[in-house]
Write a structure and sequence with these properties.
Elements (H helix, E strand, L loop, with lengths): L2 E12 L2 E12 L3 E5 L6 H8 L7 E6 L2 E2 L8 E4 L11 H11 L4 H14 L15 H13 L5 E5 L7 H16 L3 E5 L3 H7 L2 E6 L2 E7 H6 L5 E8 L10 E6 L3 E6 L5 H11 E9 L3 H21 L1
Parallel strand pairs: 3-8, 3-9, 6-7, 7-8
Antiparallel strand pairs: 1-2, 1-4, 4-5, 9-10, 11-13, 11-14, 12-13
Helix pairs in contact: 2-3
């Protein structure tokens, strides 16, 4: 059994609206997998079908090498996008309760809860009710609840929501530790920087369909080195050359741009040096954020063209 999860052409419709359209993907065991897409793309609906909250209208969900069944959920940790904490329960009681629902003994659950609360700097809040915590602390509690029973498969839907950068990085480090321990991790996020740091493979969905899939490094390399990062001091009129620059994001003395098709980067460098002092000129692969925007916009144009035809 090499795949922790397989979606086989799953489809979900609500009346005339198709939320997920024949989506297929495979998540290898021990992989960090990113499920990406704009708002309303079908990510959360897909996750809910993975774990049996909703049932596909067609297609199959396979988990741990066999058709999905509810007993698989004892081996799964799930952090939903919406918080699901009992507001008036104390944190230690709440987390212990969740762990015991997953088959952890009460004594072991209490030890695990204390360890995780210390790890995430929540020990002094252990006797507080969840409603008394900030949104960020509630998110950390919910994160703990999803990994407390030592699951084989961890599903995170916007796991860093409400967290400051330091706490978000701490959870990223924990996910990397879980991968080293052989766990399989699926997460959905809007943050492309997290995807680039954490993911081995990705699927980008738009309008309920997979529009880009594969090994993250191969996906990025397939776009070639068509992006340029420039640090400069002076006039940025070189950005106005449409034959050389397709698009750009200028942040003052730092600009990231996409070369026009067929453009010579050396010509751009010479032109930039004529009007500005260049301290950095680097030809790089496009960021995942740029690929994301290009693919989604291209898919929109394709759909619009299909509608007009």
């Amino acid at each position: 059994m090499n795949n922790t999860l397989e979606l086989r052409s799953i489809t979900k419709r609500y009346d005339k609206f198709t939320a997920v359209d024949s989506l297929s993907l495979q998540i290898p065991k021990g992989c960090v997998y990113g499920l990406l897409g704009p708002n309303g793309a079908g990510k959360t609906t897909s996750i809910r079908m993975m774990i049996g909250i909703t049932v596909p209208d067609s297609g199959e969900v396979w988990m741990f090498g066999e058709p999905f069944k509810s007993s698989h959920l004892d081996r799964v940790g799930y952090l939903p996008e919406e918080r699901g904490l009992y507001k008036r329960m104390k944190i230690t009681e709440l987390l212990s309760f969740f762990a015991q629902l997953k088959g952890v003994s009460r004594e072991d659950a209490e030890k695990r809860v204390a360890w995780w609360l210390e790890r995430l700097d929540l020990l002094k809040w252990s006797k507080s009710k969840s409603e008394e915590l900030s949104k960020g602390m509630q998110q950390k509690v919910q994160f703990i609840a999803s990994v407390l029973h030592d699951p084989e498969f961890v599903i995170m839907d916007e796991f860093s929501s409400g967290l400051d950068p330091a706490n978000a990085r701490e959870l990223e480090n924990i996910l990397l530790e879980l991968r080293k321990a052989g766990k399989t991790i699926l997460f959905s996020t809007h943050r492309m920087d997290q995807v680039e740091k954490l993911c081995d493979e990705i699927t980008l969905v738009n309008q309920g369909r997979a529009v880009l899939q594969g090994d993250l490094r191969k996906v990025k390399s397939s776009y070639g080195k068509s992006a340029v990062q420039i640090e400069y001091d002076g006039d940025a009129r070189f950005l106005e050359r449409k034959d050389l620059v397709q698009s750009f994001h200028n942040m003052g003395n730092h600009v990231e741009l996409k070369l026009a098709p067929g453009a010579d980067p050396q010509q751009l460098l010479r032109l930039a040096a004529d009007s500005a002092r260049i301290s950095k000129f680097e030809l790089v692969e496009p960021s995942l954020e740029e690929i994301f925007i290009d693919v989604v916009n291209g898919d929109k144009n394709s759909l619009a063209g299909g509608t007009n035809a």
